[in-house]
Amino acid sequence: MKVSVYRYNPEADRKPYMQDYTLDLPEGKDLMVLDVLNLLKEQDATLSYRRSCREGVCGSDGMNINGRNGLACITPLSQALNGKSSLVVRPLPGLPVVRDLVIDMSLFYQQYEKIKPYLQNDEPAPAIERLQSPEDRAKLDGLYECILCACCSTSCPSFWWNPERFVGPAGLLQAYRFLADSRDTATDERLAELDDPFSVFRCRGIMNCVNVCPKGLNPTRAIGHIRSMLLKNAT
Amino acid sequence: MSNIRTMDFDAVIVGGGGAGLRAALQLAESGFKTAVVSKVFPTRSHTVSAQGGITCAIASSDPNDDWRWHMYDTVKGSDYIGDQEAIEYMCSVGPQAVFELDHMGLPFSRTENGRIYQRPFGGQSKDFGKGGQAARTCAAADRTGHALLHTLYQGNLKAGTNFLNEWYAMDLVKNQDGAVVGVTAICIETGEMVYLKAKATVFATGGAGRIYASTTNALINTGDGIGMALRAGFPVQDMEMWQFHPTGIHGAGTLVTEGCRGEGGYLVNKDGERFMERYAPNAKDLAGRDVVARSMILELLEGRGCGPEGDHVYLKLDHLGEKVLNEKLPGILELSRTFAHADPVKEPIPVVPTCHYMMGGIPTNIGGQALRQDKDDKDQIIDGLYACGEAACVSVHGANRLGGNSLLDLVVFGRAAGLAIDKSLREGYETRAASQSDIEAALATVQAIESRTKGEKVADVRKDLQNTMQLYFGVFREGKSMQEGRKKLETLRERVNNVALEDTSKAFNTARIEALELTNLLEVAEATAIAAEQRTESRGAHAREDFTERDDENWLCHTMYYPAEKGIRKRAVNFSPTTVDTFEPMVRTY
Prior knowledge:
The complex is a heterodimer.
Chain A: E1 2-7, E2 17-22, H1 33-43, E3 62-65, E4 68-71, H2 77-81, E5 86-90, E6 97-99, E7 102-103, H3 106-114, H4 134-138, H5 157-161, H6 168-179, H7 187-194, H8 208-212, H9 219-234
Parallel strand pairs in A: 1-5
Antiparallel strand pairs in A: 1-2, 3-4, 3-5, 6-7
Helix pairs in contact in A: 3-6, 6-9
Chain B: E1 5-14, H1 18-30, E2 34-38, E3 54-55, H2 67-77, H3 84-104, E4 118-119, E5 137-138, H4 144-159, E6 162-165, E7 167-174, E8 180-187, E9 193-203, H5 224-231, E10 236-237, E11 242-249, H6 259-262, E12 266-268, H7 276-279, H8 289-301, E13 313-316, H9 322-328, H10 330-340, E14 349-358, E15 362-363, E16 369-373, E17 379-387, E18 392-393, H11 405-426, H12 436-441, H13 444-451, H14 458-472, E19 476-477, H15 479-496, H16 510-534, E20 543-544, H17 552-555, E21 557-562, E22 567-572
Helix pairs in contact in B: 1-4, 1-11, 2-3, 3-11, 5-16, 13-16, 14-15, 14-16, 15-16
């Protein structure tokens, strides 16, 4: 099989290029794209990419696979190829490349930090846990599972254009995770910090984020909830 | 390599998983200049993969639950070589540590009355084994590790902890008195090497499951802290004790939580028989993990395995119904569909015992201070070095860890290490500075790798090492075969000392990191092999075909492996809890 991989080493290369590899695949087994990269790395140790859990929960190996953002470790080769004969792997788009498939995620993390992704509660903590009904807890489902892989934000044209000012789908999903938490008391402050033309309202409902999220989460819906809360607060 | 840059901290924590982040949080809140050095962005650490939960007597599921019952289960689970004072500390402080996690925002699942949801796990009982199965494992669906790790990272963001993310710690720096005064580290993105000077160095580097060919562990679990400790000449404890988790997905190694059996799932052989009823008539599928793993292997050896090769058994969940599975085990549905091509709603998951957890590690006291023995076998503190979490052996797990106790271990002892360092620094702990040659000594490993222009590939040597450990030091062990394994490891040491880098560039050079990790894998493997061969009995996870019985007369003790002698010394188990009576060793049945 032909595998075409984006290569760039800032010390040696003036500009990035695509390198083609030929790989003999073991028969009768549908490898994951990460397995393919690991086999390539045995051939060519200079290939750099991030990986850790290899089971889709740590979010290290987000990359662009045959044109679509996803996690290499849970993308089966058959699904990635979808009838095509070759695999094309590139770094996630829209952020600077450090080397090969490794991107600089600083802006992505900055936007995450900006929304104060931690519980705030100004009342003294009880001696046990803060009680929360199963119904209130259920509001966090589909939000807390985010793995910060950046597949969503780097597929979002609004984030490509304004990565400094638009929080992006990943950050906004977490913003809503804390707005929705019955244990958090900082709702007004959180909304006030998001209330500008860029942080939330640069979302144009393109829904690439929903389309690519490897955990099946729906940032667009969360953004919709934040918009409603902002509008309600404004009236 | 002449003068490298020095960065100066009060405390340096190596590892950004649950234990490291909990220790960091304690120190950041106390105002000490703390840095977390993590070879991956912290939320990519292996804690993220923990599924089922954190076991703790918070008295939600059963209002009469008692931490002493949890202590009894843990001592019994450890096959009596867990230190009782440490277990007492963990079980009694546990509820406070868990409530702190809730206050920090951890999205625990809930009961109808709003408390934290608890599920049954293996080895749990009420009333000191007399009151039947307990439900003591606090859960956030089946993503508890993910929820815990993200919550701790978020807590550290709030507290303003310094992070050196994607930095790799290479070796300990010791001063002229033999005290630990920091580590050398490399910034992966730029390739710059730095001396991180610290009064307290905490190893929270996690496990080393990657010494085995088949493991539930992340690719990053290469035992870096153990390797660094051994290269510095410090001992490690109980390294023969490796937990094989009963339910790794066959072929992929991915973990399937014990919570599946806690929620009512069970194992069947090719005849559809629920075979655990034969091996553990009371606890059945919720017996200790060592017991279940051995029973599974016996089923395979006796020809009752499933599939064309008869090399796995099935975990049946479909009878629980789609609604329960979606609510309680959503992550397992995803993993099974992806990695086993089996939909648990309709069909069983093919599973096999898979290397999961290192019970051994750097011996420490309750405050996380690393220990060695003096010439009279008395414990001696290693100045400046701390360890917590899986990298440490405090020892609360002894010869077999109970499910759900690892997350409790890492929050309780991460916190305890933070508290102990806080106290030591406030009391004015000081050491003499490292000399230039002390720092250079901690660059020797990387320099040796960089100096070779010809040699073997890292990937080839690593694969042979993993296969050797799998073959000779697996679920069942035998003296002769282990000696053979040790000989292979001697050859592997020569090969590790002869690997050459195929990439010498600086920017994000993962080939260099993998070569350094290989040196750590080898140290862990060798310590495991030597300790396993020396312990001539069967206890907990260490099962020998040539010594099938537990031998309390000779082996009711820890093994301490010393790298200079490549041999072990015995260390007494603590049988002196401070507020309850000692749990005396008994025959361990489930």
